Amino acid sequence: MGGVRFRLLGALEVNRDGTSFDVPRPRLRAALAFLLLNADRPVGTERLVDALWGEHPPRTARNQVHTVVSTLRQALPPEAAELLRSDPAGYRLAVDPDSVDVRQFARGVAAARALAADGAPVEAARALRTALDLWRGEALAGIDAPFAGPVRTRLAEERFAALELLADAELAAGRHHPLVPELTALLREFPDREGIAARLATALHRSGRPADALAVLRDTRTLLADEYGLDPGRALLDAEAAVLRGEDAAGGATGSAGTVAAAPQPPAPAGPPSDPGPPSYPRPAQLPQASHGFVGRRAELDRLSGLAAGTGPAGTPGDNGPRTALVVGPAGIGKTAFAVRWAHCATATGAFPDGQLFVDLHGYDANECETAPRVLERFLLALGVPGHRIPEDPVLREDLYRSTVAGRRLLVVLDNAQDYEQVRPLLPGTAESFTLVTSRGRLGRLVAQTGAVPLRLGVLPPAEAVAVLAELAGPELVRAAPGAAAELADLCGGLPLALRISAVRLVEEPELPIGELAGELAPEQDRLAGLGLFGDDLTVSGALSHSYRRLAPEQARLFRLVSLHPGASVPAGAAAALLEPAGTPLSAGAPAPARRLLRTLEDVHLLERSAAEPGHYAMHDLVRLYGRQLAAAAGTDCGTEAGAEAAVALDRLAEWYIAHADAAYRILDPKRLRPPTELQLGWSGPEPFADSDGAQQWFVQESDNLLALTRLGVAHGRHRAVWQLALLHFTHLMRSHRLGLLAEVQRLGEEAALALGHRLAAATLANNRGIAYAIRRDRAAAGHLERAIAGYEEIGEHGGAARARLNLGNMHYEFRELERAAHYQEGAVATARATGDDALLYPSLQNLALVRNEQGRHADARDLLVEAVAVSERIGTEHAVADSRVKLAWVLQRLGEHQRAFELCEASLAVARRFGDLLMVGRAIDQMGTARISQGRSAEAREHWEEAIRVFSGIGSVEAETVRRRMAEHFS
C-alpha cells in the first residue's frame, strides 16, 4: 500500500514517505490502534465497542463507532483511507500487516528464533537488534482505552522475551564482554527478572568475574525473598551452581526454557494505613500451598494486582463498595493454581494484614458441593467467633460474618464456585477486603449485581506450555528432546492440567522417553486415556465430567453433537441445525432457543465464542475429544449401528454447508457451468447473502470447515455430499490460489461422483482438476482435461466439452506451446459465438488474446480483450469485468499505453481483493509496477513490484520469481 507505515511501538504514528499524518482525537487514535492490531482481519462492531468503552459503553456506542470510523477515514492518507472498509462483520483495515511495526517486530523475532535454532547466533542477534530498534518507547503510548492496557502488557512481555533471546544469542556467539553493561542496565530496570540475572551472571563468569557473578545472583535471591517471599527458580540455581563449580555455562542462560514467571507487582493496600499495634483478633492464614511449576500468566497476574490495589475497574480509592474479581475458564486451565499463586504473592507484601480466608466450594461436584451456611461457620470460627455465638439461622449467620469482617483488610478466596447464590452470602460488605472468586461458569449475575470484574484464563502459549514440562519434569529432559517436548505440549493443547499430568508421567515412568509419550498421545482415540495417572482419579476426562454432568439433557445432546463437527470452529447456525429433526427447512442464522443452549455451553466453558470469527464457537481439542468419547458411549458414533442420531447430524451438517455454499457460489460465480446442486432442504426465511462481500466472507471463514467436512464425508461414504461440497468449493480455492487443496478436493469429488454414476458431476470435477494442474504448469492437467472432454461428449454436454478444450489450450499456453494453445482457444471462441454462450465467450476471448500477445500480434490481442470487457459487462459479472481489464492492461503495456493500463489495474484491484482472487491481485499490482517503470517512476514501480512479490509468494505462485527477475533487470 504505497509508502504508508504505521507505528504502535511507542506513540501512534502514521507515516507516508517520511511525512507524518496527525490523527487528532484520542478515540480516533484508539480505534486506529485497535484496527491496526487486527490488520487485514474483520473487526466486529461489538468488538470495537468493547475495545473503546469496555464493559459499560454508552447506549449510543454502536452509532459512535460508525462516526469514529467515518472521521478516521478523513484523517488518514488517501491510500490508507480507501482500505478502511465496511465488512459484513463490522470493519476491516485492509492494510498489509507488514506495514505495522508490531507485525514487523514479531516477524523479526520469529526469524531470529529460527536463526538461533539453526546455529547462527550472530545472525540471530543482528535480526533481534533490528527488531528491537523498532521500539521508540512504551507501546501504544498515549492510547487510553480498555483494550490498550492488556495489549501494552503483552507487547512489553514480548519485548522482554526478545531481549532475553538477544542475550542468549550474544552469549552463544561468545560476545560476553560487551554484553555485561547491557545486561547490568537491564537488570537495574527489571530487578526481579531471574532470567536476566542468570544471563548476567553467566556473562560475568565467562568474563573472568565469578565474584561479581555470585553477587548478582545473591542480590536477586535476596530481592525475591524480601519483596515477594519467593525461593529462587531453576535459572538462578543452575547459574549459581555453574559459577561455584567453575564451569563455563555454555549455550546461553541455563534453565531459560523453564523460567518461572516473575511475581506480579504487589497490590497496594486499599485503605488507610492500619494501626501498627497487633490486632486483638485472630489472623487466619488458610491459603493452601502454591503449586510447584507455575509458569506465565504475567499479564493476568499484573491485572489482578491492579484490581486489588484499586487501580482497576474493581474499585478505586475512596470507593466504599465491596471489591471482587472473578477468575473464569474451563476445567483444567489452572484457575486455582493462578488464584493461590497470586494470593501468596500479595499476602507476602502485607497487602492483607488481617489474614486470608480460603474455601474450595466444590461447585461442580454434586457429592461435595459446599453450602454457604457451612462455609460461614468455618470462616467465623477462623475469625475468632466462639462456636456457641454462631447462630443457626442462615441470614443471622450471614449478618454476623459481615459485621465481623467489617473494617478488616482480608483476602477472601472462594475457589471453584458454582453460581451466584453459592457465593453471595460469603462476600464481605465493605471495601477494605478483597474477594477473589474462581469458577468454570461465567457467573454473569455476580458481575451484574456486585460489579465483580471477570478475568478469563486461556490456554498457555507454546513456549510457556513447554516451560511447564521443563519445570515439573526437569529442564534436562526438555533440552534433550526439544522437538518432542513441543509436540507433547501441543498435544496437551496448552491446558495446564494435561501438561502437569504428562510431566508427572515422565517423572514416575523414567523409562518413558518424552517422544514416546507424545507418540502415545498422538492418536486422538488414545489421547484422553493417556492423560491420567495410574491409581489416581486426576484425569482430564474426570475434570471435564464435572461440567458435563451439570448439563440438562438438551444441552448435553448439543455438546455431543457439536463435538462431531470436524472443523476448528462451528458457526452458530450450523450448531443450531444439528438440533433440528431431519427435513426441517434451513435457517440463515441460529434461532433463539439454539442460541440460548449455546450460551449455556459457553457459560461453563465447554464452548468458547471465537474472537477471530464472529458468530462462531470453538472447542478446545481435548474438550472436543471428550465430547466425541461421550457420543460414542451414548451410541451416537457414526461408525456404529446405533449411530442414527450422529448419522442424521452429519447429513444435516452437510446440507447446511451445501445450501450456504450454493447460495454464495451463485453470487460469486453465477455464469460458471456446473451440475445443479441437489438441495434436499429449502430455506425457512431469506437466503443468507445479500451481496458478493457477504458471500466471499463466508467462504473465507468456512473454507477450512468445508475441507474438513468433505474429508469426513469421504470417511463415512457420503458420496452425494462430497461431490457437491467439492464442486461448490472450487471457485474459492482457485481464487485464493490454494492449488494443492484444490486438486485434492476435486479428486475426492470426482471419485464420489463416479461412485454414484453421476457423469455430469464427474466430468465437471475432472475439468476442475485439470484447471488446478494447468495453473501449476503441470502436464498432468492434460489427462484430467481429456477425461473431462470425453465425459462431457458421452452425455451430449457440448458446452462443457468446449470449456474443457479451452482449459487444455490454457495448459499449452502455460508451456508457451502457442500454436496448439491457439488451436483450442480459436475453437472455443467459434463454439461460443455459434451458441451465443457469453459465459464461454469472454474467457475464450481473454485467453486467445494472451496467445496473440505472446505471438507479437498486440493490436489483435487488444481488440480481443476490448470485446472480452464488453461481453463481461453484458453478462454483468463484476469479477469477469475486472479480470478482462487486467488482461487488457497487460496488452496495452506492449502498445505503450502505460497510464491507461495503470488505471485499469487500479480500478480492478479493489474488485479482486473483495472477491479474494489473490492471483488477480498480484497480477494487477505487477502491471501497475510495469506501468510506473515505463513512465520513469522507479520508486513507485519498486513498491508495486515488492508488494506483488509478497502476494505471489504468499500463495506459492511461480510468478513471484518472474517479478523478481524483472526487478533485478531494472534495479541491479
UniProtKB/TrEMBL annotation:
GO molecular function, one term: ADP binding
Region of interest (Disordered), ranges: 250-289
Signal peptide region: none
Residues covered by the OmpR/PhoB-type domain: 1-95
InterPro entries the record matches: AfsR-DnrI-RedD_regulator, BTAD, OmpR/PhoB-type_DNA-bd, P-loop_NTPase, Sig_transdc_resp-reg_C-effctor, TPR-like_helical_dom_sf, TPR_rpt, WH-like_DNA-bd_sf
DNA-binding segment(s): 1-95
Ranges annotated as biased composition (Pro residues): 264-282
GO biological process: phosphorelay signal transduction system; regulation of DNA-templated transcription
UniProt keyword list: DNA-binding, Transcription, Transcription regulation, Two-component regulatory system
Similarity annotation: Belongs to the AfsR/DnrI/RedD regulatory family.
Name of this protein: SARP family transcriptional regulator
Species this chain originates from: Kitasatospora phosalacinea
Organism lineage string: Bacteria, Bacillati, Actinomycetota, Actinomycetes, Kitasatosporales
